[in-house]
Every structure is written in C-alpha cells, then in structure tokens.
Amino acid sequence: MSWGSNKVNVEVDWKPERTLVLLGRTGNGKSATGNSILGETKFLSKTRGRFITKECKLHTSMLSNGQRINVIDTPGLFSASSTPDFTIREIVRCLRLAKDGIDAVILVFSVRNRLTEEEQLTLRTLKILFGSQIVDYMIVVFTNGDAFEDGDTLDDYLEDCPEFQEILKECDDRKVLFDNRRNIPKSTKDKQVQDLLNFVEQISKKNNGKPFMADLSLELRENEATLEEKQKQIQAMKGQSKQEISQVKKEMEKTYNEMLEGIKEKIANQLKESLNDVKEQLAKAQLARAETEKKMTELQNLSSDEIRRLREQLNNAERETARLRRQQGSQRCSVL
User: 197, 217, 10: which is closest to 104 by C-alpha?
Assistant: First the structure.
C-alpha cells in the first residue's frame, strides 16, 4: 500500500496545549480518529459496538514533548436528522470545552462512504455558521486508508472525486490519510498523527497564534467564572436572610442565563441562515437533476423515434426493391 505524503516542516513558538475539534458525518470515523490522535482508546467508536457519539466530549493526552493535546469529538451536527436546538446546544457545549479556543477544525471524511448532498454543502454551511475565517483553521482527514489497493494513493482517489476540490483549495490542501486500525505498524500511526500535528502548527503560524472562536470561548469562560465567584459570595453571606440570599441568587442566574441566551440566539440566527442556504442549494441540485433526467428521457425517446424511423425507411426500401424486382421479371416475360 502506498501512502499519500504531506511533508510539512513548520517552526513556530511552541504552545503547551492544543485543542482540536472533529467534525463530520456519523460513521466517517471521527471517534476512531480521535483515538489515533490521542494514542489510546478514549472515545468509544462504532468499531467497538453500536455506540454513536450523542454529545460533544473532550479527552486529553500528553505527548512525549510535554505538549497537551485536547480532542473534542462531536455528534453529526449537520446531518439531516439533527434539530436546530440540538445543534445549538452542542455548539455551545463545544465552545465551553474549548476553553482557550480551537487550534484546528478537523473535517473527517471516509474514502469508503459516498458524499451525501448535505456533506457536499459542508463548506458553505461552516462559513455561514462560523464565518469565512474557519477555512484558515481547517484540516481534512480521510479515514479508512486501508481501503486502497497496493499502489493507489490518496491523490489518485481525489482525482476521481471533484467534489472535494473546493474544500481542499480553501484550506490550502491540508489533508491527511488515516488508517485507524489497531494492528497497523507503529511507524504508520506515528507518521499520520505527526503529519496532522505539523498542519496544526502551520495553522497557528498562519493565524499568528490566535485560536479560532477564542473570543466567544473567552466570553463563556469569563461569565462562568463570574457565576462561580458570585456563588462563593452567596455561600459567604452569613447573617443575611434566606430571602435576601435567594434574591441575589436569582439575579445572578438571570444575568448568566441572559448571556447564554444571547450567545444561543446569535448561533441560532447563523444556523437558520445556513439551513436556509442548504435547503436552497439542495432544491437547486434536485431541480438540476430533474432537468438532467428529463433531457436524458427526451434523448432516449428521440433515439427510439429515430430508430423506428430508420426501420420504417429500411422496410420501405426493402418493399420498393422487391417491387422493382417483380416489375423487372414481368417485363422479361413480356419480351419473351
């Protein structure tokens, strides 16, 4: 088997902690990829049963150089079956888990699965929902690297998959092929993870060390810190009546909930826009497909009509030939 190689040499200021978020359709191998990155089985994946990720989860691993890697696994946020409320809740959960922002967004696709119409609109959806700058943090991981026959490479596969061209162009062709099986050589495991981490460092350098969504994560963290501080103050309110303590607690919770609702509303508005855009694009695609099918049917009917016309011409020609032969034979008899 030949592996596609992405040689990336990056020199940036070393950061003691990196946070990666895995996005992709259920069944593409996000959890297994997370385990490969961490170097141990921490996320439950479908290879170990029928488990499917239902909410955002974070697990951490320490590299040999002392760097901490945080990996956030997500459910299928943009599938047709996901409700807006579910998506909003999980995006907020993800931002809470990514305390200092997101260093890289990993889009996970499987070379064994055909792209759904929703997946083909992933880039548009992410741009509308999170802003166009998200492409500066994206890395594309293709799983099931063992599916390739000897001699085939990831680049060979992509030549036959034009639907990936836009995504890869937008993220500067940052792509890695992963084989998440447990029995592959350690050198192969280490190489695919190192290729990915090299891209993470490249992204950090490109964005001057600033993580993605850092401002919103910071806002959430600061408000939660304020909430915890006020809770401590409430606990220390000795001598105050229960009614006064209850009133302060209600006001504190109201302020926090208003902040949280403000963030949710912002995400909801962007999500609504992205969903409307996806519906519009899907409708256009379905219309285009219907037009293509209509034209194909017309061509088939035209071909059938043309074949029928040619057959009639052939039959007429054969009848005319037979008539002329009979006429010729009749003339000979007359001469005799």
Answer: 197
